[in-house]
Design brief:
Blueprint: E1 2-5, E2 14-18, E3 22-26, E4 33-39, E5 42-47, E6 54-58, E7 63-66, E8 80-84, E9 94-99, E10 104-109, E11 119-123, H1 125-131, E12 144-150, E13 153-158, E14 164-172, E15 177-186, E16 202-210, E17 216-224, E18 227-237, E19 242-248, E20 252-258, E21 264-270, E22 279-284, E23 289-294, E24 299-304, H2 307-311, H3 316-322, E25 334-337, H4 360-367, H5 372-379, H6 383-388, H7 397-404, E26 412-417, E27 422-426, E28 433-437, E29 447-452, E30 455-460, E31 471-477, E32 482-489, E33 494-497, E34 507-511, E35 519-523, E36 531-533, E37 544-550, E38 553-558, E39 562-567, E40 575-580, E41 593-600, E42 603-610, E43 616-622, E44 627-631, E45 637-641, E46 646-650, E47 659-666, E48 672-676, E49 681-683, E50 685-686, E51 689-690, E52 701-704, E53 708-711
Parallel strand pairs: 20-22, 45-47
Antiparallel strand pairs: 1-7, 2-3, 4-5, 5-6, 6-7, 8-9, 9-10, 10-11, 12-13, 13-14, 14-15, 16-17, 17-18, 18-19, 19-25, 20-21, 22-23, 23-24, 24-52, 26-27, 26-53, 27-28, 29-30, 30-31, 31-32, 33-34, 34-35, 35-36, 37-38, 38-39, 39-40, 41-42, 42-43, 43-44, 45-46, 47-48, 47-52, 48-49, 50-51
Domain F-box: 355-386
Organism: Deinandra increscens subsp. villosa
Domain KIB1-4 beta-propeller: 20-257, 434-670
C-alpha cells in the first residue's frame, strides 16, 4: 500500500476548518480532485472526470494513500458512492465503491502487509432480491446507496421498491473478502408538508449518516422545482428499532454537499460554541448557496456561498468531521417519535407577573374590553391573566358585535407546529407572535391547499383505512376552530373557493392534469356532488397555478404562460377560453422564476419572483389590449405570497401599501420580510416604521418548514 507524507504548495487549494481556531491545510492531492467523503478521520479523494484515481488523505497526520487506478467498464452516466469500513491501519480495512446504477460493489482491501492493492468487483443482485423477499422478480432491484459506517459496521440504503436500510457485513479472510447483505431496519415514513396531489412535482433525496457516538441519522431533503423546500431529520432508536424525529441537535452539526453531477455526500461533527451548531447545512454547488435547516424551530435559512469557501470546494466540512474525535463526547441530540407526541400546549407560565399583580375581578373587567389579538396576547401573558381570560367562542353574538368595530390591518402568517400541537400566528406589522392549540380534529398529515376569507381548505389524512377512494377535504377556521367537511373527491392538484364556506353561494373548484376529468366543482350548500368537466388540450402537457375566483368566473395560469378563464359553471355546461396566450418573461431574473396570479379589484396581477428573490416584477392584465403591462407600484394595495396563497388587498393602514409580503423571517428574528416597490429592496417593520434595506434578495432570511400560509383573521 502506497503511503507518503504530503508536501505543500502555496498555490494549491486551501482547506479551512472551523474549530477552536481557524486552521489551514494545503495539499498537492487537492489539485483537480474532489472530496467524496470522510470516514474514520480520513478524507476520500477522486479525480473529477472519470472516478478512476482514488486516494485517502489524513490531513491531521499528513498522510496520503494512493489506490491503483480503477480500470473497469462503466455504464453511461454511472458513478460511485464510497465508504471506508475502518481506518487503513486496521488489517480488516476495506475501501468500497457502490455503483449508483447497477447492483455491484467494487472494493479494495487496505492491508499494509499485502504487497499490492487490487480492485475486486462483486454483484449483490441475488442477495438483495433474497432479503427483499422478491423471489419472483416483481420489484425494482436496488441499487444500494448512501453507504455509511456506524458502530464499526457498514450500512446502506436499498433504493429499490422495498426501500430499507441494509447491513453490509464484511468478513476479511486471509485470501478473500466476503461481503454479505442482511436486512436491518425499514426506512422511516415521512409525510410531505404539502398536499399529496402536488408531490409529483417533488424530488426526495434521502441521506444516511452514522457517527462515532452511537447515532444513526436519516436525513430527507425535499426539492420542489429544483429548490429545497423541506428537510426531515430522524435518528434511529436502537432499543425499539424505531425512527424518531430529532427536535434539537444542540452542539451537533450535519453538512450535506450536492454538486452539479447530482453527487452528494454527508458529514457530521460536534461544534460546541460555533454558530454552525444545531443545523443541517446543505450546500448546492450548482447554485452556490447554502440552505440551513434548524432542527429545533424547523426553519430553513438561505445564505450565499462565500467566494473563499467556493474555491475550497466546501472542504471545511470534511475537515470539521476529521477533527471531531475530541468533541463527540459533548454532543447531544434530542429526539421524539416520528409520528409526533400528543403534546398539549400550555400558554401559562410558572412565574408570576408583578406588573399585573391585581385582583382577579379587575383583570376580568379589563378582558371584557379586549378582543381578538389583545385577548390572545393578554391570555398568554401569565397564569393570572390566563385564569382571568377563559377560552371563548369568538363566533357568538356578543363577540361578533365587538369584532364589527375591530379593524385588522393585515393578514397574518400562520404556521402549524404539528409536534407541539400549536398554531402560530405572526403579525407582519409588529412581528408579534400569537399561539393557539391545534384542534384535536386535526392530525399530523393534514395539509393546506389554499387560504382565503379567514378559512383554510385542507386535505385531511385518513386515520383509518376504508373502502372510499379519493381524498377528504375540509374547511378550517383557526380563529373559531370551526370545521366543515366536504364530500370525498378524486386526488386533485390545486383548489380555490369563491367565498367563506358559511355563505350560501360558496363554490369550490379543483383542478388536475391527468385522467378523464380535469375540473371539479362543488356547491357547498347544494348537496354532496362534485361536478366534473373534461378539457381538451390536444395531448399537450399542462398544469394550473393559483386559480382564483373573480365573481362567478375562475382565472388560472396554465404552465406559467397562458391566462385562462372559466365562466358560467352549471351542472351540465361551462365556458372556457384563453384570455392571454403568453405570460411575460422576467428581464432581471438570473435564476428560475416562480409565477403568482392574483385578483386586484377587477384586474389580474401577475407577480414573477426569482428563485432567490433577486428579482420581483409585477404585471397587470390589460383587458382592452389583451397584454400584460408592467407596473412599478401597487398604490393603496398590498400582496401576500406563499406556496398556498396569493392575496391582493386594499390597505387598511397607509404604511402597508405598495408592498409584497413573503412568508420569510429575518434569520435571527421574527420580523416578516416584505418587498417595497418604491425602493426595490427588502425591508422589515419596526412598529410602523420601515427599517433599512435588508438587500435585494432572500439571503439572510428563513422560512417555516411546517405547513404555513397567509390568512385573513376572521371570527365569522
Amino acid at each position: 500500500m502506497e503511503e507518503k507524507q504530503v508536501s505543500c504548495d502555496e498555490k494549491l487549494p486551501t482547506v479551512i476548518a472551523e474549530n477552536q481556531h481557524y486552521q489551514y491545510y494545503q495539499c498537492n492531492e487537492l489539485k483537480e480532485r474532489r472530496i467524496r467523503g470522510c470516514f474514520h478521520y480520513w478524507v476520500i479523494l477522486s479525480d473529477h472526470q472519470d472516478d478512476i484515481l482514488w486516494s485517502l488523505w489524513n490531513p491531521i497526520a499528513s498522510k496520503l494513500i494512493r489506490l491503483p487506478p480503477l480500470k473497469l467498464r462503466k455504464e453511461e452516466e454511472e458513478s460511485y458512492e464510497c465508504c471506508l469500513s475502518s481506518p487503513p491501519d486496521d488489517e480488516a480495512s476495506v475501501f468500497l465503491l457502490f455503483s449508483d446504477s447497477v447492483p455491484t460493489i467494487v472494493f479494495c482491501r487496505l492491508d499494509r502487509k499485502r504487497k499490492g492493492l487490487k480492485w475486486t468487483e462483486m454483484s449483490y443482485a441475488k442477495q438483495l432480491r433474497s432479503i427483499s423477499n422478491d423471489a419472483n422478480n416483481l420489484g425494482c432491484l436496488g441499487p444500494l446507496g448512501q453507504p455509511t459506517c456506524w458502530n464499526g459496521k457498514v450500512y446502506a440504503i436499498d433504493f429499490g421498491d422495498y426501500m430499507s436500510v441494509v447491513h453490509v457485513d464484511i468478513v476479511v479472510k486471509p485470501k478473500e473478502v466476503v461481503i454479505s447483505l442482511f436486512p436491518f431496519v425499514e426506512m422511516p415514513r415521512v409525510l410531505f408538508v404539502h398536499h399529496p396531489a402536488r408531490v409529483r412535482s417533488y424530488i426526495r433525496r434521502p441521506f444516511l449518516k452514522g457517527t462515532c457516538i452511537d447515532l444513526l441519522f436519516y436525513i430527507q431533503v425535499d426539492f420542489r422545482d429544483e429548490m429545497i423546500d423541506d428537510v426531515h431529520l430522524l435518528k434511529l432508536d436502537v432499543t425499539s428499532m424505531m425512527w424518531k424525529e430529532v427536535v434539537e441537535l444542540e452542539d451537533a452539526v450535519l453538512f450535506i454537499e450536492i454538486d452539479d453531477d447530482n453527487y452528494s455526500t454527508c458529514y457530521y461533527s460536534s461544534a460546541p460554541g460555533s454558530k454552525l451548531r444545531g443545523y443541517v447545512h446543505i450546500f448546492c454547488e450548482s447554485r452556490k448557496v447554502i440552505y440551513s435547516f434548524h432542527a429545533k424551530d424547523r426553519t430553513l435559512s438561505l445564505s450565499s456561498m462565500s467566494p473563499l469557501l467556493r474555491e475550497c470546494q466546501a472542504l471545511a466540512w470534511p475537515m470539521l468531521e476529521s477533527k471531531r474525535e475530541e468533541q463527540d463526547e459533548d454532543a447531544k441530540v434530542v429526539v421524539r417519535p416520528v409520528k409526533g407526541e400528543n403534546n398539549v400546549f400550555d400558554s401559562t407560565t410558572s412565574g408570576h407577573s408583578h406588573l399585573l399583580n391585581m385582583p382577579l375581578d379587575i383583570l376580568e373587567l379589563i378582558m371584557k374590553h379586549c378582543v381578538s389579538v389583545e385577548y390572545m396576547k393578554f391570555r398568554a401573558t401569565c397564569k393570572h391573566c390566563y385564569l382571568a381570560a377563559p377560552s371563548i367562542q369568538w363566533s357568538n353574538k356578543t363577540m361578533l358585535r365587538r369584532l364589527h368595530s375591530y379593524s385588522l390591518v393585515s393578514p397574518w402568517l400562520m404556521a402549524f407546529d404539528n409536534h407541539r400541537g400549536i398554531i402560530t400566528f405572526i403579525d407582519p406589522l409588529f412581528g408579534d407572535k400569537y399561539y393557539i392549540k391545534t384542534p384535536q380534529e386535526l392530525s399530523d398529515g393534514d395539509r393546506i391547499y389554499c387560504s382565503r376569507y379567514g378559512w383554510l381548505l385542507m386535505y385531511k389524512v385518513r386515520e383509518e383505512v376504508d373502502d372510499e377512494e379519493g381524498e377528504r377535504l375540509m374547511f378550517f377556521n383557526p380563529f373559531t376552530s370551526n370545521i366543515i367537511e366536504l364530500p370525498v373527491v378524486d386526488y386533485l392538484e390545486i383548489f380555490c373557493f369563491s367565498s367563506p364556506p358559511t355563505s350560501p353561494d360558496c363554490m369550490v373548484a379543483g383542478f388536475k392534469s391527468y385522467g378523464a376529468s380535469h375540473v371539479y366543482i362543488h356547491f357547498v350548500s347544494q348537496g354532496s356532488t362534485w361536478h366534473q368537466y373534461a378539457l381538451d388540450f390536444g395531448g399537450d402537457p399542462y398544469s394550473y397555478q393559483f386559480p382564483s375566483f373573480s365573481g362567478p368566473d375562475i382565472y388560472a395560469l396554465s404552465n406559467n404562460e397562458v391566462l385562462e378563464v372559466f365562466k358560467d359553471f352549471t351542472i351540465d355546461n361551462y365556458g372556457w377560453k384563453v384570455v392571454l396566450g403568453k405570460a411575460p418573461r422576467s428581464c432581471h431574473c438570473k435564476s428560475s422564476a416562480r409565477y403568482f396570479l392574483s385578483n386586484c379589484d377587477q384586474h389580474r396581477l401577475l407577480v414573477i419572483v426569482g428563485e432567490f428573490g433577486e428579482s420581483v416584477e409585477v404585471f397587470r392584465h390589460n383587458e382592452s389590449t389583451l397584454e400584460w403591462e408592467k407596473i412599478d407600484e401597487l398604490g393603496t394595495h398590498m400582496i401576500y405570497i406563499s406556496n398556498t396563497s396569493c392575496i391582493c388587498l386594499e390597505v387598511a393602514s397607509p404604511e402597508m401599501g405598495n408592498k409584497i409580503f413573503f412568508p420569510r423571517l429575518l434569520q435571527d428574528d421574527t420580523k416578516i420580510v416584505f418587498y417595497f416597490l418604491e425602493t426595490c429592496r427588502y425591508h422589515t417593520f419596526d412598529g410602523k416604521i420601515i427599517e433599512e434595506s435588508l438587500g435585494a434578495d432572500f439571503f439572510g432570511t428563513k422560512q417555516h418548514c411546517y405547513p404555513h400560509t397567509w390568512i385573513e383573521p376572521s371570527w365569522c
